[in-house]
Amino acid sequence: MPASEFVRDKAFVEVINDIDNGTNVLMGHTRWPTRGDISNIANSQPKRTGAIVATHNGTITNADWLFRRFRLPRHAEVDSEIIFRFADEAVGHDGRINIHSLAQRLALCKGSLASVMVAKTDPSRIIMIKGANPLEMMYSERYGVVLYASNMDYIRDAVGGEFGWIEARIPRDALVVINTSSMTITEIVPVGWNRNSTLCASKS
């Protein structure tokens, strides 16, 4: 279903109307299919993988090899699932994603990447990962809300110039942790991608 029809669908409207102060995370994704049957719901995003709910913009060209290398389960055809599997594997006994372990695994990926994820066991922390693909963020302390998109203009259009929204830069080649309780970036961990990989942002 095209996104233009999806946002007018009765089920979508019902979900939007159910949003209240108890809602922790609301994620959306318009997918440009590169791998996987678009009629298979398992290939859709946002995708739940274990404790992880996530989206990915890009293509991981060595996903098949990584699945075999680490003997990870695979429930979809999309290459994005390898990122989410790595994140789920990095969830500790405290329910949090160990971002240093995740960064080490991500360094093995080849291709292109921008990803946003949250662990259902730790919904107050949003993990944003920015490689060569665009990822922009704006937040509001008043509402306790973080908005993200591939283009800052989309976010500016959404907030409509309302006062109090703050643009925050997400560094390239890094994993960023945002605490939604305090509306602060609490950690930034570099991802050591191979400089010959397109996952690594080009340096001018």
Write structural notes for this entry.
Helix content is 22%, strand content 25%. It is built from 6 helices and 9 strands; from the N terminus they run ααββαααββββαβββ. β8 (174-179) and β9 (184-190) form a beta hairpin. α4 runs antiparallel to α5. It starts with a helix and ends in a 14-residue tail after the last strand.
SSE blueprint and pairings:
Blueprint: H1 3-6, H2 10-17, E1 47-49, E2 52-57, H3 63-70, H4 81-89, H5 99-106, E3 114-119, E4 122-130, E5 136-140, E6 145-149, H6 152-159, E7 165-168, E8 174-179, E9 184-190
Please tag this protein with its features:
25% strand, three-stranded antiparallel β-sheet, 22% helix, alpha+beta, six-stranded antiparallel β-sheet, 204 residues
Tell me the total number of β-strands: 9
Structure class: alpha+beta
Instruction: Bin the strand percentage.
Output: 25-35%
N-to-C SSE string, H for helix and E for strand = HHEEHHHEEEEHEEE
Mean pLDDT: 85
Helix percent reads 10-25%
Shape: globular
Output the number of helix runs: 6
Widest β-sheet, arrangement of strands: 1-2-3-4-8-9
Largest sheet: 6 strands, antiparallel
User: What gyration radius follows from the Cα positions, in whole Å?
Assistant: 17 Å
User: Which stretches are low in confidence, meaning pLDDT under 50 for 5 or more residues running?
Assistant: 200-204
Q: Report the span from N to C terminus.
A: 40 Å
